[in-house]
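I have a small job for you when you get a moment. Would you make up a two-line entry for one protein for me to read? No commentary is needed, just the two lines. Write everything out right here, beneath this request.
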Amino acid sequence: MIHKVSASKFAFFKSLSTTLKKAQHNDSLILMPGQYNTPLWIDQSLTLKGKKDATAILSGTINIPKGVIVHFEKLTFRHDIKIIVEGAVLFQQCYFEGDTLNEAIIVCHGLLKMTECTLANTPILLKKGSEASLSHCHLTACPATHITATNAHLELVSCQLKDAQHAIVLKESAKASIQHSHFTKQRCTQLLIESTSELIINDSTIEHGGNSAIDAKDCCQIKLQNTTIQHHRASQIGLQGSVLHMDNCKIQYGQKYGIQLALFSEAAIYNCHFSQNYNAHIYGNDQSALFIQTSTLHGSSKIGVELHKQAVAHFSRTAFKHNELIQLLLSERSSVSVEQCTFCTGQLGIVAQQHSHCTLLRSVVSGHIQSAITIDNSELIAFDNQFIRNDGHGLTAQQEAAVMIENNHFSDNNLSHINATQKSSITIHKSKFIRGKGMYIADSSLLYMTKSTVYDENHTQITGNNSTKIYIVDSKLKNGRFEAIKAANNCFVHITRSIISAHLLQQIVLHHSSLVMLDSTIEKGLRNALTLTDSCDARIENCQITEHKDTQIIATLHTKIKLLQTQLLNQNTINIAISHYSKASIEHCKITNNKQLANVQARHFSEMTIQHSRINNKDSQHLFIDEASGN
């Protein structure tokens, strides 16, 4: 049955309270325009409708008990309205405007559905076990929170929520599913999630918040898909002890962090784009875990990803670009693995410090002003990577850093490909170094290089200094514009089964250092093969030294050198020259040159011993010993 209801006591139609007393189950009440301010207790299922202009205004308290379903359509709820739902209520094309501060207008213990409604200053409180569904609704101008759900279920579709303290607060295992909605200009965190609650957002936008977009703590779960989050004054997403899953989202224009993870939080990010977040796109600490795949972290943030306090992360097929300072920063025992990623155009690429660990696989690091990789008192394992076209160093290792490199490619770096200092350890296997300033290994550091190639360098290819140890095995150093190896100040150089070829300056230069060279070749140098000065100690065994345009071996200033089963061939000048209290021992060697010059020469109180060796040239003079020297 349909009942027409008037707000005037002089009208022909009955009043609302009278009609409710006589209405039957599933009756419809048509409310004429006017003000209805009588408290209502609706104890049976009804439909209350207004005219199209929604000028039928209800105020006061409305109670809907359990087992009752009430449908309100095209009505206005204003002033001191309070709706308490124990049963089920459906609002369609209704307008709400409250006048109380910090108090719920709609309190739901049962089922709440709203379609095409406008709610101004109308907080909604969902109690334990309740459910609410809002579709195409507009919530605005609220001094408190638009929707608070405690152990309840909320669904939003195509809604707009703006201008409140919080848009949504979920507490105590509450759940919310949001689609095609827009959140903007909340004065504090837009969505606050607490105590094992769950939030799912699809195809939505969250922007221009006074604090964060989403803040979750205490074992909450957040799932975002096809959603844009931007322009927040604090971290756009903050997690404490919670889990985040993101797919195909944008996190951009934040004034602090894009995502902040703390207290064992976890984040899995797929196909997402981060841009223009001021401090860092992602910040993680307190043993948080981060997984990123096929994403981009671009724009002028200070840092791309920053991890502290034993945080862990894995990056796959992700691009880091245009960060102002550091693209990936690890500290305080953090650990990260990086696979098929690119890092380009920033001050620093990857920085690991304070006992952190980084594994780098099949990635490209290029275009950095200072250093592509910096390992400070930490560890790096790198396989199949490229460190190319950096304005600074390819790799910097310092303060007892440990680096293991295999099958990597270093090229066109303006400073040293590798700069290792302060007791660092560098292990290189099957790698190439091209067009740079070689490697600098100093301060009791260690370089162990096997099956690798260094060529076409603009500086000394390997420089050792201050008690450094350098091991070169099955490798090639060739076509350098300066020396191949230069070591000074108590360094130790060990070369095995390697080739050193075609350098414009001396191929190996040692000063107050030691050399062991076994089964190796030094050839085609434009200057000397070896220059040893100031108390050097050298052992050369089963090697071939050939085709140099200057003296092949020079030893001076208290240097000791021993040659065993070694050939010095095709020489255009003196083969061996020692001087100034130096000593040379030659056994089972072959020494030849093509000029009428001595093969070996000892001067200035030096000593030379030759046993079981073959020495010949075009002239009969094989040896030159000055008066102060002996043989």
